[in-house]
Write a structure and sequence with these properties.
TIM Barrel, 9 helices, alpha/beta
Length: 274
């Protein structure tokens, strides 16, 4: 099932999803009112064009700049992201997904409004986190997806959330089996402890062995120097920080870094450049 699912959505195996990080949005403490929404649009368009030119297989729009992150976002967050993604639809040449940190209801609504093919979120478990006590309700979220007639939107489950620790720890492979069995995960994402930090190859291998028929993605810390090893184990990767100028999360996408990264990926997949 896993390989067929990936080919259907991303038209390849071992797909690379490039992150399009939104700058701080209206209502966020770091929002730049002088540049305004047009400044956000210009930033997002530039990063999208750089990633698509480099040859990523898909992009994932996320409000990474909205620190400190919320567990329920303001309406302005979803409205602004929807407005900007809507303006970019004619520029999109690859499949896209959305992720509103850390609000799965807003993420599902944004996906429905914009036509996103997939979403990534923390849908399950309870955590002690930088944002406080973080509880989830996957049953209500999936019923909300069904209410919106968005059942075709794929669910990427981030099962070891960044900036957080589970209140009742279980082995990660057990969490993965549980998320697939009881919570209907389409794809399992494995993360490092913080955005941009490397995922454990051991964690990836254990989870992949536990759910062999479900795609397992490396969700953080995938770089030029480790992507070949990661793709030996994982079914794909979400890549953000390492494609930025100087490898800094908050910088723009570096077109040359992104190009070199995808050249390595194509060699790993046995594809011909050009």
């Amino acid at each position: 099932m896993g390989t067929e699912l990936l080919k259907k959505v991303f038209h390849t195996t071992k797909p690379i999803i490039g992150m399009v990080h939104f700058p701080p949005l209206p209502g966020s403490p770091l929002y730049d009112d002088r540049k305004g929404v047009e400044g956000i649009f210009d930033w997002v368009l530039r990063d999208l064009e750089a990633l698509q030119k480099a040859g990523v297989d898909a992009v994932l729009f996320g409000n990474e700049g909205d620190r400190p992150y919320q567990l329920r976002v303001d309406v302005a967050t979803t409205a602004t992201m929807s407005y900007i993604i809507g303006r970019l639809r004619e520029d999109l040449t690859v499949p896209f997904g959305v992720d509103v940190l850390w609000d799965p209801y807003a993420t599902i609504a944004l996906a429905k409004a914009t036509g996103a093919r997939f979403v990534r979120e923390v849908f399950t478990n309870a955590y002690a986190s930088d944002m406080g006590i973080w509880n989830t309700d996957v049953a209500s979220v999936l019923r909300y997806r069904h209410l919106l007639h968005a059942d075709d939107v794929l669910l990427f489950f981030n099962i070891n959330a960044e900036f957080a620790a589970p209140l009742a720890p279980r082995p990660l492979e057990v969490v993965a089996r549980s998320a697939r069995f009881s919570s209907l995960a389409d794809v399992i994402c494995i993360s490092g402890p913080i955005t941009g930090e490397e995922v454990s190859l051991e964690d990836l291998a254990r989870v992949k062995e536990a759910v062999p028929d479900t795609p397992v993605f490396a969700n953080t810390g995938v770089r030029l120097d480790n992507v070949a090893h990661i793709l030996e184990v994982a079914d794909g990767a979400v890549v953000g920080t390492s494609l930025k100028r100087d490898g800094v999360t908050w910088n723009p996408v570096d077109p040359e870094r992104a190009k070199r990264f995808m050249e390595v990926v194509r060699r790993v997949r046995g594809e011909q450049d050009g």
